[in-house]
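Record type: ASSEMBLY
Status: queued
Input:
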Amino acid sequence: MRERKLKLGNIVGTQWFMLTLVIVVIATVTGLINPRFFRIANIINIFEQISTLGVIASGATILIISGSFDISVGAIVGLAASCMAMLIKADVPLWIVIPSGILIATLCDVFVGYTSIVFRAPSFITSLASVGIFKGIALALTSATLQTIFGQFSFIGSTRVLGVVPLMFIFGVVVYLVVYFILKLTKLGRRVYAVGSNPQAAYLSGINVNASKLVFFVINGILVGIAATMLLSRIGAAGASTGAGIELQAMGAVVIGGTPISGGKGGVLGTFLGVLLMGLISNSLNMLQASPYLQDLATGLLIILAVAVNALSQKRSQIGA
Amino acid sequence: MKTPRGAGVASVPLGWSVRGDQLSERELLLSVSGIGKAYGAHRVLDDVSFELGAGEVLCLVGENGAGKSTLIKILAGAVEPDAGAIAIGGKEYSALNPNESMRLGIATIYQDVELIESLSVANNIFLGDEIVGRIPLVIDAESQNEKARQLLDLLHIDIDERMLVEDLSAAQKQNLQIAKAFHQDARVMIMDEPTSSLGEEETRSLMSLVRDLKGRGIGIIYISHYLEEIFEVGDTILILKDGVRVGTYPRAEIGVDEVIRRMVGREASAFFVRERVPVGEVQVQVRDVCWKGGGVSHVDFDVRAGEVFGIGGLVGSGRSELASCIFGMVRRDSGDVAIGGKKLRIRSPADAIRNKICLITEDRKKYALLAPMSVEENIVIVSTELGRNPLLNARRESKLAGDMVDRLRIAVADPRQPIVSLSGGNQQKAVLGRWLLCDATLFILDEPTKGVDVGAKEDIYKLIVELARRGKSVVMISSDMPELLSMSDRIGIMREGRLVKVLENRGITEEDLIHHFIGL
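Status: finished
Output:
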């Protein structure tokens, strides 16, 4: 009997339970005040809006669990999207454009990871430096102009499967599933956790830590490339600042989802809920006709709240142990 | 600074009988009575008392793990004792914090920490109470340098006060710390293994500095493994063993052999009686291992199948460094390892593991635990990594881990609970389990029972014997002499990075071992 109570307490205490609760509460309150919130069109809209962020946050989840960071993601999105837009304007066929965009993003992330490994610098620093590099390249290539391709590459952003489900959302869900599969069911995923927990112990357990880290960056780069493609298709234009700031939103979603910034634990389910919550709050504030400035404020407060919940639950478990 | 002889001090009778009449003439600086400290069930200090007078050099001796470090950490205010009192400056304290300790005139001289590398010698001496000139908030560098020069001259320390600390040698840094402590009116100086990284010349000059300080009425607590130094400079010798004070002796009344005997003296019951298993042919050959960076030079040894080869030596003699060379953790300068006559190419731990070598490191937290991960994941990590399947097999993993938990009797409610929630002994068993799963031929165990409770210790010993029975070769590095003597078939002695001797474990005693460790 006591044990069952404890287990219930454990579930209630988990981050994803809390998140689901918050999501339900916010949705209910918003829906009561403004019934348009519950219209199918709005709900589809929310899912469409968070798809790109979800793809980027999935990659960030892998990196953060493994103890790395990439804050150049926004700049990579800008560079890759600009390149793709320019190729499309030059009438290069899409089957070349999309893989090229993903390849560019991957190479950028390999650069971030490789410099971090070779120079034994935190990836936080090498990616910080890379922001300037990637942004500079994108500005030079585009001559700092917006590359517009309206109507030439909108099928990903506008397709509705069966007339309802946005293709973007399906992309997002597939990425979540793939990342979930990698993290929980593959040896590579085990390495993500091991390297993030204690790189020295992982090394002494026979894991090639440096090679593994590079692979994590490659995965992140592919996902960033996919996200850039999705974003370009939705917006129909790209420039050096496309995607700026998305890396911070993504890391925020990862943290809200309960993956600690110190690495070694966490998962993509939490990230999904974190992304959903961020999208929901932004949509709710719209629905409630709140000032758009409040959105950033709300996101910031949410991250602090998530950190606080995390810290408090950790303290409790320490006392328990 | 005044050091009154408070009533609290006089009420502590310990050491009275030993030093007798001297005490009445001498100013008492520090009196420690009935100090105790336990970490969980593990008692590291039990009812330790001593006194320190002005101008006295009290030498603290004992094996690794006897409680010396804990005792000095308590005096430095870094560790809070569970019992006892510290009387200093006429007041009794149940515990000190680092600030109090410093304010009361206790200074601990550590190896090169506590100095700011990028500042000059003079600036380091006056750090925190800089001499300010006429312009407010601006340091008067000239008068600081001058005062620093006077201080260094007074103590006969030959360092240029304008040099940057990062350009000083280890010995000079140590001297600087002493000078700084002197400047801060420290009355009690604690020196923990001050000569461990010094050459002969530097050691001699440190000895004369110690004598100089002594003449100025400073009380010194001196800790060293090197008994010659202790007999050269000490007034009294306090012997600790397993956290208990064996006794306090005036230097003149005790000899080196007697000190060694009392340091290690132990009841026979402390020994684990292991079962003997047949020892086979030579299975592992280690040849000419050198690693300059770690101070390992030209180590050769063989280990036979079914043999436990113990490696003993003082802390810092290069034992763990040797292990990291064999395991490919570091880039050694030379050296080969062969198993079954086949020379192996080992350039990383992954190579070593593939070649059936495993290493259980001394520092479990730093090198072995995957802290936020579960017991199960910690146990299967190597086995999963060795497997060819890119996918995880959850059922296989939970079976392997579950079996290992049962086999090693790891006390765990659920193998999926985080490994850090286990006790030290159970964590160690889980780490051992990790390596048992990969069926190695050579097991290198570095301090396998460090921080492990008695029950788990015995389980680990049985496991080692079990490995030997299955024809594995075991290299066991240990600072625990009863452990070495009860478990090993042969014992290799390391001293200053060399394997100086290999003893058949027949009729040797702890005293013999200590003699070999020190090289007396």
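Annotation: Chain B has a mean pLDDT of 85.
Annotation: The longest strand of chain B covers residues 28-39.
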